[in-house]
């Protein structure tokens, strides 16, 4: 029997849903039949997304909130569960990089702001959603990590650490909640074209260098993350928990520098 990708009759909460990966994932979950709860700091962008979902025959609730603010996660989860009477999917997508620079130049505030949104807010959403899902005996949490959380990444040490912490949280909650019917997994995108990565692409020569380090020879589009998110959210992955699904065009599978990829079309190299 093939497990279903359908989310008909289910309720999905997406944080950071107003743009980028969060927006694309919300549209994908809605297209699969989920009633969506959309939260972010930009109410205007959320309203536009909700209207697009409604125009496609879906249903969405907009909850404007700074998910990193004290008490916000609990209120958002409570409002989502009250609206629909249940909560089946949570996609913890909200995230940011407060600044980029060498480790010794990043400030305490840079670390506080980045970990506050990327990790602590995710943990608080899980803290609020866990009891709801465990009480109903089912649920899927998808945490948006990054390949930066599995590798050493210069210039964004605080971001990398926040994503590594998210991966550890994912695996820990997966083991704690599995017997209660709740799955917890993470997605780890590589270089995806978003507002978050825009400043890196704007650095002269850097975008081309980064593309040449990706075997797929391109950056990802936000839509490239939608299918993997749907897989983890749906019953198609019903026996998958504690997993980190990498979506990076082969970046993390490749150990060499860009120059080696350039040699592939030339074929075998004589070294003797």
UniProtKB/TrEMBL annotation:
Family per similarity comment: Belongs to the short-chain dehydrogenases/reductases (SDR) family.
Superkingdom in the source lineage: Bacteria
Pfam families hit by this protein: adh_short_C2
PANTHER family reported for this sequence: BLL7886 PROTEIN (PTHR42760:SF135), SHORT-CHAIN DEHYDROGENASES/REDUCTASES FAMILY MEMBER (PTHR42760)
SUPFAM superfamilies: NAD(P)-binding Rossmann-fold domains
Entry-linked InterPro entries: NAD(P)-bd_dom_sf, Sc_DH/Rdtase_CS, SDR_fam
Cross-referenced PROSITE patterns: ADH_SHORT
Name by which UniProt lists this protein: Glucose 1-dehydrogenase
